[in-house]
Design goal:
Helices cover 31% and strands 30% of the residues. The protein has 158 residues and is α+β, with helices and mostly antiparallel strands. The radius of gyration is 15 Å and the shape is globular.
Length: 158
């Protein structure tokens, strides 16, 4: 069993951008992604396109057109809809104003399910999506516009 908390990445009127952290780690999954690919010359172009897409989301909100479905139809798992054939960043698009960033990596297979690492990132987000929904239903957390109320102090068991 793992403990997950959320770290705020960006908070403005357009979007609340968060990332998941496992087991009291100071480094979020999104920060792990940044650190893995920031100095990687092979994927530099894809990495910069992802950063540009995130800056557009910060300016305009987590609008549906910025994403494509990656998980199941019943969950909120998405990938940034960029033209990259290789690099993927997975996230939970909760609404136009709430985005939870996960981790990602290089897609070397036809589908993410065929890649153990990418599949693991998607499954982590799918599991957290269910836990967050349950926390909303029970009133442990409340989502209001671009904020998840009480999220800084909340931890979730998965």
């Amino acid at each position: 069993m793992a403990t997950i908390s959320l770290k705020t990445i960006e908070q403005n009127d357009n979007v609340g951008m968060f990332s998941i952290c496992f087991d009291k780690s100071k480094e979020s999954e999104f920060e792990k992604f940044l650190n893995e690919f920031k100095d990687n010359a092979t994927y530099n172009k894809d990495f910069n396109i992802i950063l540009l897409a995130l800056s557009k989301i910060i300016d305009k909100g987590a609008l549906e057109r910025f994403f494509r479905n990656e998980g199941k139809m019943s969950d909120n798992v998405k990938a940034l809809a960029i033209d990259s054939r290789k690099l993927r960043l997975y996230c939970l698009r909760i609404s136009d104003k709430i985005l939870i960033l996960g981790n990602g990596g290089v897609k070397t297979t036809r589908t993410y399910q065929e890649n153990e690492k990418l599949s693991g990132y998607v499954m982590d987000l799918q599991t957290f999506d269910k836990v967050l929904l349950k926390a909303q239903k029970t009133g442990r957390v409340t989502i209001e516009k671009n904020m998840i109320i009480d999220i800084q102090s909340a931890t979730f068991e998965i």
